[in-house]
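TASK: fixed-backbone design
INPUT:
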């Protein structure tokens, strides 16, 4: 049994208590471990009048969690060489080329200084212009409010512009791009923008207002239609696939999760690229929340334990708090469980001559090139935390140092003696001589 299954009763109790204590209509919840949805629960009601319970396929507005999909679309276009993260937004959307210092990267990490909302927004009156073309007709009203990179400043307007970048750079409508390039490959058939199909519409939960002086919960006002910055509906099943995808061996995903900009002086929250990190105790959770009329949502995960949680509420509550509670219960179970023992992957024959001990005479220290966990790695006995892995290139003697270290992106180059034996390795900025075995 997956270790998450062993704490299912604790997860169910925490979920039910949270919904009851906060007088919420209901919630759909899930915990992901690795590549599977290890636990899910529907608590309370997806629709009170019909006494309909939440299912793992019940659709909820996930609002700003949509930004993680928009960010992923931008990064894929970056990886395809169609844009750069340091491009000013005006390079791709000339209507706003007056925005000095507003780059794609700064928009992704909410440090551009751009105004929070499109012109004329009033969320309390459900007044919001979600059509980017209409906002661009009044582009002179779109301005930075604080200097770029001077502080964290969350901006729906900025991510709306990023959606327009996706459309213009890819040559297809934003909605079509994310559907064909993200949803369909990941099997996320229940994730969609409005207008929803009749089939999906029947699966939607009813959103409710928060309680004030009575436990009576009224259906919420209909939210304005939005797209790249917060328009998606989704479900526990599909978001489970989205979290599992975050655990895949993709350096671009690691780049997105990595913090770029601190939100507060207490170092409790930091934004990466379309994701943010939240510190609670000694644990940092990568996450994103969403809030739109009648719905609150959150997904959070820990890349190390490969555990994540999903909270979808059809009311007003702190979804991030419940997600972290569930994820921590599951993470503790996973970290305390006995590790699975698998046969090690054999070292490729062509790598065998590279393995061994390398020495620096001046420092008097060594480096070991090893095959471990299916990767070529460099081990430093004097630096236990320094364990860069090497990615092959077209040249069998040249490797690229993976992200996460000072030397990342630099080359590791092996040189050979005339007889073919490896003589040394050049690591980013220095040569280490191989200690050849005595004959």
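OUTPUT:
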């Amino acid at each position: 049994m997956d270790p998450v299954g062993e704490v299912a009763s604790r997860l169910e109790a925490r979920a039910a208590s949270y919904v009851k204590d906060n007088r919420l209509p209901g919630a759909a919840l899930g915990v992901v471990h690795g590549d599977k949805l290890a636990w899910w629960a529907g608590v309370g009601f997806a629709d009170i009048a019909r006494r309909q319970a939440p299912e793992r396929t019940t659709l909820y507005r996930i609002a700003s969690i949509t930004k993680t999909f928009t960010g992923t679309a931008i990064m894929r276009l970056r990886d395809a060489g169609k844009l750069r993260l340091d491009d000013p937004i005006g390079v791709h959307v000339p209507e706003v080329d007056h925005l000095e210092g507003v780059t794609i990267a700064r928009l992704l990490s909410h440090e551009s200084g751009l105004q929070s909302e499109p012109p004329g927004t009033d969320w309390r009156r459900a007044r919001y212009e979600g059509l980017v073309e209409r906002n661009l007709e009044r582009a002179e009203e779109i301005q930075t409010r604080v200097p770029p990179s001077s502080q964290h400043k969350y901006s729906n307007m900025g991510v709306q512009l990023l959606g327009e970048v996706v459309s213009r750079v890819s040559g297809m409508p934003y909605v079509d791009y994310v559907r064909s390039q993200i949803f369909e490959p990941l099997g996320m058939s229940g994730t969609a923008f409005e207008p929803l199909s009749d089939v999906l519409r029947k699966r939607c939960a009813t959103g409710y207002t928060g309680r004030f002086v009575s436990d009576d919960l009224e259906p919420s006002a209909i939210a304005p239609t939005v797209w790249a910055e917060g328009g998606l509906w989704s479900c526990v099943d599909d978001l489970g696939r989205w979290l599992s995808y975050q655990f895949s061996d993709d350096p671009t995903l690691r780049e997105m999760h990595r913090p770029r900009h601190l939100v507060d002086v207490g170092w409790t929250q930091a934004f990466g690229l379309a994701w943010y990190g939240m510190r609670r105790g000694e644990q940092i959770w990568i996450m994103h929340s969403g809030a739109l009329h009648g719905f609150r949502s959150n997904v959070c995960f820990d890349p190390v334990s490969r555990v994540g949680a999903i909270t979808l509420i059809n009311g007003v509550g702190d979804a991030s708090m419940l997600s972290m509670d569930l994820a921590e219960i599951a993470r503790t179970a996973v970290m305390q469980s006995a590790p699975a023992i698998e046969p090690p992957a054999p070292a490729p024959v062509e790598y065998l001559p590279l393995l061994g001990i390398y020495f620096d005479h001046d420092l008097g220290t060594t480096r070991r090139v090893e095959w471990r966990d299916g990767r070529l790695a460099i081990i430093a006995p004097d630096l236990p935390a320094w364990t860069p892995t090497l990615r092959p290139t077209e040249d069998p003697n040249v490797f690229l140092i993976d992200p996460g270290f000072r030397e990342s992106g630099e080359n590791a180059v092996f040189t050979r003696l005339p007889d073919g034996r490896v003589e040394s390795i050049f690591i980013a900025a220095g040569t280490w001589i191989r200690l050849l075995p005595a004959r």
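COMMENT: The longest helix spans residues 319-336.
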